[in-house]
What does this fold into?
Amino acid sequence: MIRLASVASCRRVGITVLTSVVLSMGAAEATDLDPHEWAPAHKWTPPHAWDPPQNWTHPHEGDNSPEETDSHQMFADELLASMTLEQKIQQISNRPDADALPEGTYLGQGDQFTTCGFSALGRHITGIPELGIPNFREINSGNGIRGGSCVPEPVRTAGPSMTLAAASFDPELVYGWGEVVGNEAFTFASQVLLGPGLNLIRSPYAGRGQEYPGEDPYLAGIIGSAQIRGIQSQGVQAQPKHFLGNEHEYDFERWTAGVRIPSRALHELYLLPFEMAVRDAKPASIMCAFPYLNDTDYICDSHDVLVKTLRQRWGFDGWVESDRRAMHSTVKAMLAGVGYELDSDPLFYSEENIKAAIEAGEITETDIDAVLRPRYVKMSEFEQFNDSFDNFTDPDLTANAAKARALAEGGITLLKNEGGLLPLNADTNPSIALIGHPWFAGRATMPPRNLSRLGLTTVVPYFTVPPKTGLEKYVSSVSYNNGADIDSAVALAQESDIVVLMVGTNPRETRDLLSLILPTLCIGNDDDENPEEPSDSGLLLRAVVPPPPVEEPDCDGDTVAQDELVRQVSAANPNNVVVLYSASGILMDWLDQVPTLFAAWFPGQEDGDIMADLLFGALNPSGKLPVTFPTSDREAAFATEAQYPGVREDNGLPGGKGFPNDGVFGDGSNQLISNYTENLEMGYRWYEANGVTPVFPFGHGLSYTDFEYSNLTLSKRFRREFTPSPHKGGKHSSSMLKLAGLIPVLTVEYTVTNTGAMAGAEASQVYLKLPKRSAQPSKRLVGFEKVFLDPGESRRVVVEIDAGASNHPFSYFVPDDPDDLTTWANGDWKSASGRYQVLVGGSSAETPLVSRIGIAFPKAGKHSHKPKPIKMPLPPIGKHLHQQPGMEHIGMFLPPLGKHSASKIGD
It folds into this structure.
């Protein structure tokens, strides 16, 4: 989105910006590594300038030298050597302690300065002062911070939802939002921020879809990595979640549900955002999730997930934490590398259980060291042993609000604008009917963290701008109706010049949406009286907040039948605008009556001001859909009950609803298992593969101006990758390098022109179709760039697609046994030499520029291990091949590399 007063420069996201970590294609799977010998990976260098906390030095300033890495490891080892067994056990579980709270005061809910009140749900580990181990605190981050060690909740920045962040197609703005939440965690005395969520939105029913970055793994990986880098730039450890298979909440069954996901779908879709984040953003920690995976293990007990894939295949060197009540075993979780059981009191990592496992010879104290060491190493790298984090400091909420607003402006998406109704003309001073439930039309709509369908829980904002306030900047007559009485809403619509309908869904943690139709919502007692102040469980005394009941109470107040409200009001006045607040697509049988539709997602505290600026043209919308809007309630990955929510199976495992208590999971029902039989046909891939036209396609988004694409050219080169050459004694020499691989790099160039009369921004998208042997259902997103253009301005866009990038742009995963889901982790990435089709345009369904190019993947021999490649700025092998008519099928074929190459490239 662009303010008309200024035009920013372009922001490019091609794979080339993610090559700080280089992968050799088709690398042999590392199955011979000791899970207790987790080698640290390369450190990340932050790309942006930033204002660090006082007296703090970033741990990742450039690549840590071996000496620096060794110093952190040595520190952790010396610390572990000084600890007793009991102290180590105490350090791997969550035991909130009323005597270990931060000191000082902070601005809390109700705009009152307060001290930290104890909560038994607090996320912290009490320190050991005599050993110099500080209290270790975490705070939750769905879409802004809340849910830490203190009540009441702090006043902080209520920014946009993760889905909106993905809709911005702008990682620079997302990095800035990461800085905000990292800073606000740091100033709230918290070393770890639990987020971002990197699960994909497999279906629009997803209860926590607002916390997830869309349906495409590449987009999710780019956006998630940007936020992680921003968080960690502030001296706070990021913890991406919910790893793995946590696409749904079901109906209060997330603690017991199972998933069956084919190996290719796992690696090419659901694992990929996490892999990209691990390789490119270097998160200090990761949170393992609830599901029972592929008839093998629960995620937090899974060696295949947490060791074989996370550590051995990807090189993760951080620590692992369980989600609350996600563990199911003491021994399995320990041997899989879980280093922190999050709970109000340890269930599996209790002193009794661990000592019993040691006595039985199932684990040793060395195993405890192995799971605890990575956290101490990261704390040392982040200099968190030097800062006790025991005092609150004040964040700059004004500066943070500006970053949150910039992201919200960039992600709100205009889906429909028939007849040019928008932008509205303030000079005519039209009368406006503002209609909708108080959650959406009566207050700024912030990302919900609801546990109950009757309540609205959000970050506690520093300030908000309700829609009526925003609209009154432009016109003198704005009349609000909450929509409970549809007849009165229709009457208001008929007497007004313009109708603005603000409607939405009520996604919430622990439960998925029951329907894809706009829900009927209750109006609570506080919805009209305090439209700017969200309800908040943090105010329910300084005590344990119990989990919500499985069965929820009925509404005892008025209700808003939103679907019927839109249908009748839009029929009463054709000059209407619908603003949809949701995490994903909904069903809209009234869409033909609505000329203008926005997907506002959940924009945050300045919602009213931003939406008014968009409606009246002070802002030009530039968001693009990170999800596909469906045509029915049963299609794509949710076409059958077996796919979603799943079917119950009598497999001997617990199933059913309810928060686990006293080690008892479920309610005695059979286990619910969701079958991902759509395999790779998820999201826009399903619609393309099956020839189905969605209501709105992935990547779609309109502007108040028009853009034209032209002059596509393709060129390629081979980047040389080197590895240290070993001496005869087996040690590597830093001065002697050996050619390890030739990595294809495809350069895609094209021109985007603003052909309209208003300045605007266009998120251009680059898709790739792989050769047939890869058995892909459709094209895949491999790059994008958001360009900001004045009227009549053209810009040449350059996107580089590097075969060694973390998203494997030219590759597909080949499982050893595709029919055996239990061996999903066994297999390898492969690349097919042949013709690749490149498609460029403004959405997945609109790619006016199409061309082909031949690409070869030179083969190489293998080492018994995989040394870290070294990139050298040598001239490319071969020349650039600019795509000209008649050259569509030109390829470059090189002889195989020598037998000493580090890994096999291609198949």
